[in-house]
């Protein structure tokens, strides 16, 4: 599926400034418990 990635420096994730990947379906459906940065991307939207 499609994934959201924001390359704009946000917060450190594994010592790298990035946001993503996050499943678009998980963000759309509010499934913030999914792995990676789904909760963070959901909060941005």
Give the arrangement of secondary structure elements.
Blueprint: E1 3-13, E2 16-23, H1 24-29, H2 38-44
**Strand arrangement, largest sheet?**
1-2
Strand percentage, roughly? 35-45%
Oligomer: single chain
Number of beta-strand segments: 2
Q: How many domains make up the coordinates?
A: 1
Enumerate how many helices there are, as a single number. 2
User: So what's the overall shape?
Assistant: globular
GO molecular function: protein-glutamine gamma-glutamyltransferase activity
InterPro entries: Papain-like_cys_pep_sf, Transglutaminase, Transglutaminase-like_sf
Protein name: Annulin
Task: List descriptors.
Transglutaminase-like_sf, 45 residues, Papain-like_cys_pep_sf, two-stranded antiparallel ribbon, alpha+beta, Transglutaminase, protein-glutamine gamma-glutamyltransferase activity
